[in-house]
Design brief:
Layout: E1 5-9, E2 14-18, E3 21-25, H1 42-46, H2 66-79
Antiparallel strand pairs: 1-2, 2-3
Bound molecules: flavin-adenine dinucleotide.
Flavin-adenine dinucleotide is lined by residues 58-60, 64-67, 69.
């Protein structure tokens, strides 16, 4: 079910909305989450007036893999 937004989990299912319509489905014993992710980084905006340097790495910048986040963290460490 694409473009469906899960609103809440129930005892045996979920409540989701799709195209503005709320739907409840149930009767399940297992729920597998396969949602996408996006960066959530409100701190960068809060630090915009900080006089020093702000470096954003990893999933805070772009969601990716652990090795990419580690590489970016190492590069940031060398940069400072
Ligand atoms: C379910 C799942 C499976 C994954 N599987 C893989 C995989 O198999 N292989 C792979 O390479 N990658 C995988 N990834 C991706 C990988 O986990 C991330 O890319 C990586 O962890 C990003 O590292 P990060 O340091 O940027 O963020 P994170 O590892 O998320 O670290 C951020 C840290 O900041 C802390 N934090 C958040 N807000 C604040 C705050 N306000 N103050 C202080 N600390 C704060 C958090 O508690 C967390 O410890 C997976 C991700 C998910 C969600």
């Amino acid at each position: 079910m694409t473009s469906a937004k899960v609103k809440e989990f129930t005892e045996d299912g979920v409540v989701y909305t799709k195209n503005g319509e709320e739907v409840t489905i149930g009767g399940f014993d297992t729920i597998a989450l396969a949602t996408g992710v996006k960066a959530y980084n409100p701190l960068e905006e809060e630090l915009k007036d900080f006089a020093g340097k702000v470096i954003v790495v990893g999933d805070a910048k772009v969601p990716g893999t652990a090795n990419l986040a580690t590489e970016a963290g190492l590069a940031a460490a060398f940069e400072i």
